Amino acid sequence: QQLPPGSMGLPLIGETLYYIRSMKTSKPTFMADHRKKFGDIFKTKLMGTLCIIMTKPDFIKWVLAHDGKEIITGYPKSFKNVIGGDSTLNSVGARWKSARKFLVNSLRTERLRTRVSVVEDLILECLDSWQNKDPVNVREETKSLAFNAIAQILLGSRLQSGPINDALRKDFFLMCEGLFAIPIKLPGTKFSNALQARARIIEKLERDVVSKPQPENDEDYYADYMEHMRQESLPGTTEEKLLEETRCHMLGTMLAGHETAACTMLFAVKYISEHPNVLAELQAEHEGIIRACKIGGGESRLNWDDYRKMHFTQHVISETLRLCNPISLAWRQAVEDISFHGYVVPKGWKVVCALREVHHDPAYYENPEQFNPWRHDNESDNRANKPPFLAFGGGPRYCPGADLARLEISLFLHHLVTKYDWELCGGDKASYFPLPKLSKGLQIHVHKRVLVD
Ligand code: HEM
Questions:
Q1: Are 35 and 42 in contact (CB under 8 A)?
Q2: Ligand 1 atom closest to residue 146's alpha carbon, by position in its atom list
Q3: Which of 30, 109, 128, 425 is the most buried (most CB within 10 A)?
Q4: Ligand 1 binding residues, C-beta < 6 A
Q5: CATH of domain 1-83+328-368
Q6: What is the recorded membrane topology of this protein (predicted)?
Q7: Looking at the whole model, is its pTM more than 0.80?
Q8: ipTM of the prediction greater than 0.90, yes or no
């Protein structure tokens, strides 16, 4: 059997620069161009490694479903070094299962129900502060919001707003920038900056945050996680190993948990601003929820049942994720030679799932570049013909934070569209590497809205 067709690009770096350059434009075409030339499976070299790229949903679903069998997680070297080999996304086997079990359990529906008011408090605090800001920088606001939400879950009330919080957020940004950088440790490179940021985060977390006692009745995710991993360890596992696993888990979950949700909120504001009909329908949905609360004599605070009524909001979130795709590629690695649709995927090669490409494929989404939340309307009635939606991945590594992310974004949109009108200052250019960005961070002028009964 032969390798799939493709192009290996330049020596060493392969097609990395071609890929990154394409992702830094507002309409990345790397994947579509390669599919035209080579088909739905092709070989290339990205981030210094030999890759087979899968662009068809059925192929991708097969790869994701086989995680832990002939395929394992396979993020590039820079990513592993920056987040840590023991983080959930990078670990395998029994330790991965134990870590994942703990995280999934702490984010299950019954637990999320109890977190609605905590997340809402953070959103209200953030949006209230907008009255004194002109213009508001939506990127900064959503980043700090999403960061505070995941920090609250993992660290409780020990990490409040303030200088430590600000410094940590900045360092997480540097870490993120180095995830897919060339892994050369020279001073000033993105990779080196990311490793230094990682070290500072660990130091601050241990010295200034987790060493503080957690207020009584507050959960202590950090300590409970470490205890859970200790219980599930093989005899002889050292405390040093447990500490390293805990550091990697915290760093990976904090990073995965806020950069992704923040850029989804950012792009949602952009798309909604550009589509007044979407804003009008969102406002109608959320004003309806407020009215129903008042008629029922309920509080002005939201609860889980209110959240479950936000149907159109879910379509807006799905459509935002479809278009901006915070995680554009899922990386795996073949642990043996795999025979796949007439080709061989050689042992040791990366198997890269082009999640973003699926969402921009006109075969599944009509006018794929158009923001149209209504396209998700009939999906629940018509599951068999549902277009592929892979923003949260699939298979055993399906994103454990998907429900939390949806909850945060929904509550944010609720308060945004019912409390404020806004205008874009303009001039932003979108790019998508390493995560979706807007060049000016989306600046807006906001005006308080008055709700009429
Ligand atoms: C809109 C927001 C989010 C998006 C688009 C997103 C996307 C994804 C995707 C695509 C994967 C699978 C990667 C792969 O298969 O290689 C994943 C995994 C993961 N996500 Fe999320 N995520 C989001 C929010 C969150 C949040 C809020 C958390 C925090 C709890 C989180 C924590 C994780 C973790 C720990 C994994 C690794 C799971 C494993 O390897 O078993 N994510 N995410």
A1: yes
A2: 27
A3: 30
A4: 88-89, 100, 103, 107, 150, 252-253, 256-257, 260-261, 264, 321, 326-327, 330, 391-393, 397, 399-401, 404-405
A5: 3.30.43.20
A6: Single-pass membrane protein
A7: yes
A8: yes
